[in-house]
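dumping this here so i dont lose it
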């Protein structure tokens, strides 16, 4: 008579820090690139007409430039897989960031649209700010869906699973 015991263990480890070329091909990577481009264009358009600074231009410049810098940092964190090594719930932190910047971009777009008749560059800033708002809202939706499914970051999965199975066979003899 033979008795078989089976023991199985699963080890999950994430990859190290390094360049992740596949992140640029994901929706989140492409959205971050588009958001950075739209932010910088909206900032430039809002900066051309210098006389509207006290009437909302400063707010638009602040929102677009701070969104550009933060989005660029998050893009770098994902591109080099740094975000997966940082402590904290980065999926939730990034989600909160995008919710706040979606709202602030919407307000900045409304400010630009209200002052758009002053100069054509303010109207262009309104267009690019609303386009950036749409990108931030879509990215927020993707991050929320990922957060609901339990994914920590917005990129592709970076886990390697190793399964080890061990079989042990014992033969027992019947004694009389």
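and the seq i came up w/
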């Amino acid at each position: 008579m033979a008795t078989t015991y089976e023991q199985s263990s699963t080890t999950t480890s994430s990859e190290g820090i390094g360049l992740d070329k596949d992140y640029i091909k994901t929706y989140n990577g492409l959205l971050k690139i588009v958001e950075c481009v739209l932010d910088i264009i909206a900032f430039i358009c809002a900066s051309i007409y210098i006389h509207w600074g006290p009437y909302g231009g400063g707010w638009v410049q602040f929102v677009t430039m701070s969104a550009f810098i933060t989005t660029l940092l998050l893009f770098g964190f994902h591109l080099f897989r740094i975000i997966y090594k940082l402590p904290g719930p980065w999926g939730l932190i990034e989600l909160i960031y995008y919710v706040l910047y979606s709202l602030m971009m919407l307000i900045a777009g409304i400010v630009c649209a209200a002052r758009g008749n002053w100069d054509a560059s303010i109207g262009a800033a309104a267009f690019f700010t609303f386009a950036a708002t749409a990108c931030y809202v879509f990215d927020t939706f993707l991050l929320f869906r990922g957060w609901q499914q339990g994914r920590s970051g917005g990129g592709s999965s970076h886990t390697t699973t190793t399964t080890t199975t061990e079989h042990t066979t014992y033969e027992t003899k019947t004694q009389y």
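Residues 132 and 160 are 35 Å apart (CA to CA).
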